[in-house]
Amino acid sequence: MKVSMLVLAGAAMLAAGAAQASDDDAKKLLQKSGCTACHSEDKKLVGPAYKDVAAKYKGDAAAAGKLAEKVKKGGSGVWGPVPMPPNANVKDDDIKTMVAYVLALKK
User: Fold this and answer.
1) What is the pTM of this model?
2) Three-class SS state of 42
3) Are the C-beta atoms of residues 71 and 78 closer than 8 Å to each other?
4) Torsion angle of C-alpha atoms 59, 62, 64, 66, degrees rounded to 10
5) Within 13 A of 30's CA, how many CA atoms are on the CB side?
6) The domain that contains 24 carries what CATH number?
């Protein structure tokens, strides 16, 4: 019984560490890709705050795909008149990581 509890506790700590590393990786990708020039986690800059994006798309099962396409191809009209430029040079896997991070944020 004690061994099982220790194993579960260890697994939980590993998962928490992996999530932290993943968040750190996503934050680095957001900065490296230039996203932070127009967005921040909790304040509107040129574009919406990441937390506002997460709140808007909460519960939308198709959100990750829609947002990944928007990041890749750019677009306008969702958050106001300022268009989001395309980011065709950013790898698809990096975009998926960044979008997953943004959608997981809580307001």
Assistant:
1) 0.79
2) coil
3) no
4) -130
5) 20
6) 1.10.760.10
| pLDDT tens-digit map of 35-91 | 999 999 999 999 999 999 999 999 999 999 999 999 999 999 889 999 999 999 999
Q: How many separate domains does the chain show?
A: 1
Other beta carbons within 10 Å of 102: 25
Q: Which residues contact 20 (CB under 8 A, 6 or more apart)?
A: none
- pLDDT value for 107: 76
d(CA 9, CA 22): 20
| Residues 34-71 as b or e (16 or more Cβ within 10 Å = b) | ebeeebeeeeeeebbbbbbbbeebeeeeebbeebbebb
Task: Identify the domain containing residue 79 by its residue range.
Answer: 2-104
- Of 17, 33, 26, 81, nearest to 54 (Cα)? 26
pLDDT over 70 at 33, yes or no = yes
More confident call, 107 vs 101: 101
